[in-house]
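Hi C.,

You asked whether I'd gotten around to modeling the 390-residue construct. I have! Everything is below, sequence then structure, no commentary in between.
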Amino acid sequence: MHPIFFFITGQNLNSTRKNLQVPDEPAFSLLEIASLIEAYFPGFKPMLQYDLFRIIQTDVPSIDAHFMRFMERCVSIRMLGTLDFQFASNKVTASDAITDLLEKLAQSEAFIEFIRSLRDYHETFAIDRVYCTANIPRKAEQLIKNCMGQLVSKHAGLAAKLDDPDVAINAVVTYTRESPRKIMLIISFCSTHAHFKDYAERLAKNRPVFEIGTMNPPLTSLMVNICHPRIDTGSLVFDPFCGSGGILIEALVRGIYTIGLDVDWAAISGCVKNLKYYNKGMKAGFNILHASMFMLPFREKNRATSPRFDIVTDPPYGRMESLKNVPLERYIEEMMSLSSNKMCFAIPEDTVAQIFAKIQENLYYEIKNMQEKREHPGFARAIVLIEKTH
């Protein structure tokens, strides 16, 4: 097993417009990361630890470039890397703690021995980034970069090269969540940075076609990743209430083939325009159907010839929609009849009890997880993940 860590976003993904605080449990991030690891290593159940602020740690069976690229689709993270070295300081002030950590780094025989081994295979290096979560002096980031750079140059003899170095070194400064708090320095020699954290251009207001009430990333991104279809397995994402395509866009930009459905022709037309706009340079494709989900060929009797798919959707509730007077439970029941592998969908928080009762009546699906997403003081969604059992 190989230790790895994820440096997660400072945004509280369970609550709109709030930052993550030390006591908060980053439930969405934990679920998303676990789901993606399970997708990459079928049958493996990761044991995630959240003892350090904004750092999730776990062990994985193996680490290679393909795994790192796969995990880049994770919207929760800013960086992931191998957990190569970590140092702790008990000093009271942040300034004293940084000085203490740098002294421990320079005196670490294990660290010196490791960087000496780099010269056998590499010629150049760069101190890529130093992420800071702790309330430390502004100059600390540069002090850490200077210290690591001097140690690598002195003991490994590598030349500094900012553009495409042989070795890119990253570090994170954080602190323990439990009191008394310790400031921690984590160093990674094999890491990557997430590409999907900047989703501003995919917000509803910035799409070619805007629709009132549509969901936005990062919530739509999380829902796609929680269902975690792998590109290399031929699976696809199906949204039977696609609207203007908010969920399908997030699947598409991750290279996942998508199918959307809606009874509203105006919504379908807008969805096609949006997907064409965001599909530039993407290898994945999409199909959009103007039809009702109550009249589909994706039924149990056709399972042998139907493609493998996961449903990710935001069904109609509490707003204007084309299918009027249809209870929300009826939508959920119909979705379960489509025999998808997994389903991730949003429902109003006050409907959770009745929807859960409907799911429990079904012999083929079980509830895997439910997370609350607080949109504003008067409204919260529940994001529900269910999976087919047999």
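If it helps when you're writing up: The longest strand covers residues 365-376.

Thanks,
B.
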